[in-house]
Design goal:
By secondary structure, this protein is of the alpha/beta class. The chain has a domain at 52-163: NAD(P)-binding Rossmann-like Domain (Rossmann fold). It has helices spanning 6-10, 17-24, 61-72, 110-117, 138-156, and strands at residues 52-56, 76-81, 100-104, 122-125, 160-163. A five-stranded parallel beta sheet has the order 3-2-1-4-5, sandwiched between helices. Helix 4 packs across helix 5 (138-156). The longest helix has 19 residues, at 138-156. The radius of gyration is 26 Å and the shape is elongated. The termini are far apart. Residues 54-169 form the NAD-dependent epimerase/dehydratase domain. One of its GO terms (cellular component) is mitochondrion. This is NADH-ubiquinone oxidoreductase 40 kDa subunit, mitochondrial. InterPro entries: ComplexI_NDUFA9_subunit, Epimerase_deHydtase, NAD(P)-bd_dom_sf.
Length: 178
């Protein structure tokens, strides 16, 4: 095969000194400051930071940004969803492999709600609608569901509960929505 041997391939070739030095280590430092040239540490995604968060309403307008911010910082994020799992597929690349965990749930099923927040340090509720559907009334989505999530979070032992309302509620309003 062409008469080449390993020895003939290496003789006569001179590699630049900079290439040889660079291959000795993955981390290259500046001579003057001894700081790494390659960015490392908290910039970008990183491994698990020890926190686990459950984000209800993760597929909504605000939810996708909250999940992305948490997952980028290294938080394990549990994203409860209803419907089909394809609705959460776009959120998985927000964090490292296995850090964004979709779990199917029904807000009316207490056992499922407990299961999605059982291991969480923080629960964030972003569920909200400004119109009724055939399955959920305005009162059920904007009043009953947050109350149920808060109660279960307290019973399960979640350290922090954050609720963001999608409505500007006014008890004197004539509208059914506000």
């Amino acid at each position: 095969m062409l008469g080449l041997s390993p020895k003939s391939l290496t003789t006569g070739f001179k590699l630049p000194v900079s290439l040889i030095k660079r291959s000795k280590s993955d981390l290259i430092v500046r001579r003057a400051t001894r700081e790494p040239i390659i960015s490392q540490g908290p910039v970008g995604r990183q491994a698990w930071n020890g926190q686990t968060a459950t984000v209800f309403g993760c597929t909504g307008f605000l939810g996708r940004y909250v999940v992305s911010a948490l997952a980028t910082q290294g938080t394990r994020v549990i994203i409860p969803y209803r419907g089909i799992s394809e609705n959460t597929r776009h959120l998985k690349p927000s964090g490292d492999l296995g850090m964004v965990i979709p779990m199917e749930f029904d807000i009316r099923n207490r056992t499922q709600v407990e299961e999605v927040m059982r291991h969480s340090d923080v629960v964030i509720n972003l569920i909200g609608r400004n119109y009724e559907t055939k399955n959920f009334t305005l009162e059920m989505v904007n009043i009953d569901a947050p109350a149920r999530i808060a109660e279960i979070a307290q019973n399960v032992g979640v350290a922090r509960f954050i609720h963001v309302s999608s409505l500007c509620a006014d008890p004197n309003s004539k509208s059914a929505v506000y």
